[in-house]
Amino acid sequence: MDLYEHKILLVDDEPALRRMVGGFLTKAGFQNVVYAGTCLEAEAVCRREAPHLILLDVMLPDGDGFSLFDRLHRETAAPVIFLSARDEDESRLRGLGLGADDYITKPFLPEELILRVTAVLKRVYRIREEKQEDRVIDLGDCRINLGSGVVRRKYAAGNSTDGESGGNGGGQNDAAADDIEATLTAKEYAIIEKLAENRGRIVTIDALCDAVWREGNYGYENTLIVHIRRLREKLEEDPSHPKHLLTARGLGYKLV
Amino acid sequence: MKKEKDHFYRSQKFMRAFQYSIFMTVGITMLVAALNLGFFIVSLYVYVRGDVFSIGGGEVREALSITENGYMLADDMAQKLTDKEQWAILLDAEGRELWSYRKPVELPDSYSRADIARMTRWYLDGYPVWLRVWEDEIMVMGAGKGTVWKYPVEFPISWMEYMKQVGFYYVLINIVWIVLLAAFFTRRFMRNREQARIEWIAGISHDIRTPLSMVMGYADTLEQNGELSEEARQQAAVIRHQSIVMKELIADLNLTSQLEYSMQPLRMEKIRPAQAIRNVAAAFLNDDADGNLEIEVEIDAQAEQIMLRADEQLLQRAFRNLILNSIKHGGQSETVEIGIRMQEERRRFIKPLRNGDRFVICFEDNGAGYSEEVLRRLRDNKKSDANPNIRGLEIVKKIVLAHGGKVRFGNREEGGSFCEMRFFTVKD
């Protein structure tokens, strides 16, 4: 199903706000938007329309969004994004692990709303469509295939394909005989995946450790350094002067 | 949860409540004392004026004169006794009646030693009496049955001595009691008042957010609208930008009120501050499109492992505010340089009172430094007329205090400002 065909239920008691948010969604391309103003109405509409995503105001005239969320979740598996107008809710949303998919604090900018709605929809409905084989990280003279976990690097400096390397992403056809191939270990794979998700941005040591060793494993910083060095040997032409896998001193690493 | 709340009671807020309760105690005690004294004086005055007290035996004896017909009572005294419905008997040493005035008819003319001994303290046939020995005569003054309640009071001397020793403590305990009681009620009272205020602020900020959503949303829409003139879109951009400023103001207002009255229990967890520092620093560097920001983070190996009981979101908020402040008051140089250090602080000579070592997190920048006015404001916590905009820094201060830490703002000798925060670690 196309992203924009998903049906969105917007629950908010303020008609003007419903109109505005509905307008944003429509403008962004979402054609199926249904509305409800109360808990009661929300339950009825939810049963009738079976939405794919619910935008839920925390404070409703006939009850609060949290308990409505519990009731809705018994009937539908649709993801829920809370709209909240109070900081107190924020801490509650963060801490209780209600199972909500995201929350937005009022007031918000349209782009923020659309970004979150799109992200949640993609995460929940399209995760299986994005096949691992298609995920290729292109670093110019080096290409990492996340499907197979293979790194292929052009050998020697001054190779001729530099100019077009950015353009033909997705293809693996131009493998030359003199390319250097290396396979990533599971840990290296986890690191590069995390860095690629946040390409161009610093990923902290802590986030990397979390990605590789999961929660609660502190004191792996030194091991991480070892893995980074091995990764550089596979990715970089000159591992001691990296061009792609850069160090942000004291903070973490970033992939450019 | 209890423990976290205790942090607050060590803070200035508690001191204010404490002073308030002392004031209340002293006030209430003085009020009660004044009321009691007033009542006593007024009642005494009414009593004396009503002349209810019995007339003394001596007075009556002096009004008696001996004539050849026997004893004679002066007329004015006779009148007085009649008015007050009192009577009098004069006895000789043997208990025989020498003279009497308005004596009840059922009373005898002579009294045995046993009778006299009995009546000295109690009653005579149900009449309240007072005895006065006058040379070798005894003057018995009496009043009507059921008009006076008599009770002899006596205490063992040893008890009196004992009371002299413990009396001080007894009074002290009483005072402590009163103070504690007043403090309890004061705190309850203050809490309710604060709770109401926090809820009011939370309510207002909630109510503002929904309309502000629409201001922000539509301003953004107008700004994006290609059909409008460039000028109109510029104006829409200003509205959008200002609505974001308002959003931040509301969030600050809410946070400040909650931190000030510490009603909202902090969401305390065991966290690693080093991680929080990196998170915040990385986020700023990632959002810094122009590359004008340099943040150097220095965390030594021991500090890396330090754990703190904290509300991580709040702590990160404090760090963010410090960096934002450095960016805002960048000073002359192009790039804003910020240094963040975190170190363990071992105190060898003074045993830490609380379990856990201290550590320090220090933010430094190369900016213009804090003005005297700002530093004074941060130190004294007093509102002054020249009101520098230090909301962000005040929030930093409140967050650190809410975590049982200490904070110090200042200027570096080589230029730029620093903010030093000290916390206690958690021992596993």
Describe the protein in words:
The complex is a heterodimer of chains A (256) and B (428). Chain A is an alpha/beta fold and 256 residues long. Chain A has helices at residues 15-28, 39-49, 65-75, 87-96, 110-125, 186-197, 205-213, 221-235, and strands at residues 8-11, 33-36, 53-57, 59-60, 63-64, 80-84, 102-105, 136-138, 142-145, 150-153, 180-183, 203-204, 245-248, 252-255. Chain A starts with 7 loop residues before the first strand and ends with a strand. Chain B folds into three domains: 2-25 and 156-261, Orthogonal Bundle (Helix Hairpins), CATH 1.10.287; 57-142, no CATH class; 269-424, Heat Shock Protein 90 (2-Layer Sandwich). Chain B has twelve helices and 14 strands. In chain B, the strands form four sheets. In chain B, strands 4-3-7-6-5 form a five-stranded antiparallel beta sheet, sandwiched between helices. In chain B, strands 9-11-12-14-13 form a five-stranded mixed beta sheet. In chain B, strands 1-2 form a two-stranded antiparallel ribbon. Residues 1-10 of chain B have low confidence and may be disordered. Chains A and B meet through α1, α4 and β12 of A and α6, α7, α8 and β9 of B.
Task: Describe this protein with a few key phrases.
heterodimer; A: 256 residues; alpha/beta; Rossmann fold; Arc Repressor Mutant, subunit A; 2 domains; 5-stranded parallel sheet; 4-stranded antiparallel sheet; 20% strand; elongated; B: 428 residues; alpha+beta; Helix Hairpins; Heat Shock Protein 90; 5-stranded antiparallel sheet; 5-stranded mixed sheet; 12 helices; 53% helix; disordered N terminus
Strand content of chain A: 15-25%
CATH fold annotation of the largest domain in chain B: Heat Shock Protein 90
Strand content of chain B: 15-25%
Quaternary state reads: heterodimer
Total domain modules of chain A: 2
What's the order of the H and E elements of chain A?
Answer: EHEHEEEHEHEHEEEEHEHHEE
Measured as a percent range, the helix fraction of chain A is 25-40%
Q: How does the overall form of chain A come out from the CA principal axes?
A: elongated
Distance between the first and last residues' Cα of chain A:
33 Å
Number of beta-strand segments of chain A: 14
- Counting DSSP H or I runs of 4 or more residues, the number of helices of chain A is 8
Task: Using the coordinates shown, work out and report the CATH topology of the largest domain in chain A.
Answer: Arc Repressor Mutant, subunit A
